[in-house]
Amino acid sequence: MNLSLPDQTMHSSSESCLEDDKPEVILPCFRRNMYEEPLAAYSNGSIISQLLRKTIHNKRAIDDNHFYLSNSVAAADSGQEDQSSVSSKDSTVEAISPSDHVSTGVSPEEDHPLPDHLQAKRARVENIIRVMAGSPNSRQHGDGERCDTDAREMREARESCRENKRKQRLPQHQEHNTMGWQMNRKPGSSCNDNCNTKEEECHKLKEQLHSMQRLLRQLQEKFLQVYSQEDPEFVVREAAGADSEHDIIGKSTDACYISPEEHLETNNSTATSNCNDRIKADSYPMHQRESQNLQETLKQELSKAVNDCIDKVFKKVSSSTDMDISHQQRVCSTPEIQISLGADRKSLAPDHSQAEEISKSRSSELCESSEAQTSQDQTEALSLVVRKPPVTQVSSVTPTVKRPYPVHQTPFQFSYAPPLHESHILEHLLKYGPHSNFGTLPCMPPSMDRTSPDSVDLSWDAVAMRSKVASSHFGHHHRPSSMGAVGVDGLCLPHVKMESGELQSLAERNPYMSLNIQEGLTPSHLKKAKLMFFYTRYPSSNVLKTFFPDVKFNRCITSQLIKWFSNFREFYYIQMEKFARQAIAEGVHDVKDITVSRDSELFRALNMHYNKANDFHVPDRFLEVAEITLHEFYNAISATKDSDSSWKKAIYKVICKLDSEIPEEFKTSSYL
DNA sequence: CGTCTGCCTG
DNA sequence: CAGGCAGACG
């Protein structure tokens, strides 16, 4: 069916990921070696990151273990598997990624023992998924060499991508699972028999999978119809989703996120039921018990996810006011919602052009995400955190869009590892601290990234988050932006119609566009503006737009910002005039006797006004400008020019030319 | 005509 | 610091 498409998608996504991620950012290709990734990350990561990772890892381990029946098995098979799977891997691009390579062989799971039942459960689920995907690996490994041929054929047929990352590793586990099943069904069956049966199963599963996909596609289409019109990406995404066979679940979840409230409801419910049915059918061949368990698990998970989705959506809708911050955060932070974030980020960040593929990959990734999420997410986050590190304040803001905050990194916590949710949250906290703002995450420019980790901009972002509109604008504005504002939009937030092209255009030309675009100016913005006044007394609207990337500019906002600076100037000139007159009154005869230093009363007054917290080092240039201004006033007053109603204008003209460049740091929405 | 600016006022 | 107003500019 969609084999070709999925592959492409996969490739593109994975490739993009790799490219984008580079060594620093390990965009987890969710499907890939999620398990392996962590290790790879370690190698690259800093000590701190490693430590963090470890912590996280431990938590995760449990989940991972679920997937893998036994370490020993995995280890034993690993050799064969890797080799056998290599071909598929390579074909799938996965091999391309450096991170992947690293990962091969070592599995995080090894460290952690898991409860048997959990393992078994996980293994079953995974197995089923695999089978559905029709992964050759599973057969190969499970059946052994004899089946190799068949397996290869299958492989080729499916080619795919679906095997993706997971599969690489899956083989080991799979073997287990498959074998187990087979045994149950046909104790005496030979390998060949097993192969045949497996194939049959695979076919069945595949068919089911396809039908499920169709259903999903339909759902997505529906959504699209309603919302996509405004959002082109939607279409893309939809298409992608349809193409990718893997993530039925992912798709559904994705759809949920994307989908608006009402539609979500209906669609989700239907989707869920459908999925469940499919699952049932799939499981028939398997042992009753197993199938039942699986069914239960899947059902629960699916329903849970769907419910969560719906709940969230409704919450958002219902509390239009409240939704703002708290909700947003929640949404983003919630594991369920996080689902696609990681993927989105990846995909989006790369480029617009890739949007389509991204969307596709996203959907597919989502499916796997349930499993992979853990490791992958973490990996990303860790890597990010580590890399971003404390960049110097004065940064050369590189245009390249770095992966923003990992906040969302946790992909979708689907069903399998409910426990992960907590761990993810903890992870997040560990990495970013309690303040980490979700809003800034995705699109944060490099500079922002650096700062935010430090919680420097906490107040800023936090404030921003509160902005009512923020959430809505979020997604939309970002996407369009070339920045790579990633996909948080569709995922977490309901699609809101673009209000104006302003933001979009702004985003496009403003590399620093951040996610937390808000409509209103916050006290943080005021503070920032005041500090900026030390550099520029007459900022142009363009400058303001550039340096307030997290503000959704409209006439009002622009006027307000301009007004602020007008007020700043007013105060500034008043002080100047005041001190100039004071100097004259004090009998100062030479302008040269008038200086402005950090000890000056004038400076204190100004600093008190623009830098009340005194936590900002006022640039020397400002002192110079202040002195010049003071001299101007002194001279003018001395010359009794003040008798002219517009005598100050001459001074303004002089001063307006003294603006200096604003440090790049200010471009960071999170500055401060 | 809209925008920006400055001044005045609260 | 915001509103209102008026003047200058393109």
Descriptors:
672 residues, Arc Repressor Mutant, subunit A, disordered N terminus, DNA-binding, 67% helix, mainly alpha
CATH domain fold name of the domain at 523-667: Arc Repressor Mutant, subunit A
Q: What structural class results from the helix and strand content?
A: mainly alpha
Unreliable stretches: 1-115, 133-197, 227-287, 316-515
Q: Mind summarizing the main beta sheet? A: none
CATH architecture descriptor name of the domain at 523-667: Orthogonal Bundle
Strand content: under 5%
Overall mean pLDDT: 49
Q: What is the CATH H-level superfamily of the domain at 523-667?
A: Homeo-prospero domain
**Through-space gap between termini:** 53 Å
Work out the helicity level. Answer: 55-70%
Integer-rounded radius of gyration: 29 Å
- The tally of helices reads 30
| String of helices and strands | HHHHHHHHHHHHHHHHHHHHHHHHHHHHHH
**Secondary structure: number of strands:** 0
Q: Return the CATH class of the domain at 523-667.
A: Mainly Alpha
Shape: elongated
Write a brief structural summary.
The protein is mostly helical. Helix content is about 65%, strand content about 0%. InterPro entries: Homeo_prospero_dom, Homeo_prospero_dom_sf, Homeodomain-like_sf, Prospero_homeodomain.
